[in-house]
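Ticket #4471: structure output looks truncated?

Reporter: J.K.
Steps to reproduce: submitted the chain below (97 residues) through the standard prediction queue, then opened the result file.
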Amino acid sequence: MANDLDHMLARLAQLTPAASLDGFEEGVLAGLARRREEARASRALTPIRAASVGMALALGVTAGGMAAATTLSEPHRFDTFSTGAHLAPSTLLEGRG
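Returned output as attached by the reporter:
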């Protein structure tokens, strides 16, 4: 087994590297610097994101509350597409006991 490993290592030592490692360290450091800058920008935008979510939530609650209030204040119509829960078959077929 040791002979096979020695033979494989000797063949590996004779091979030339496929790619040059020149500039590898600079590329890695540039990538790290870019990630740091992106993280810094993301932290700077966090308050704006929180304000946007809060504003959207407030607008949705306000609009939904107004829609619910106007629905309750309107008289109920009974036509072809209206909903009348008291006319549902499940309530009409229910036995009275």
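Triage note (M.O.): checked the attachment and the full token line is present. The mean pLDDT is 81.
Status: closed, working as intended.
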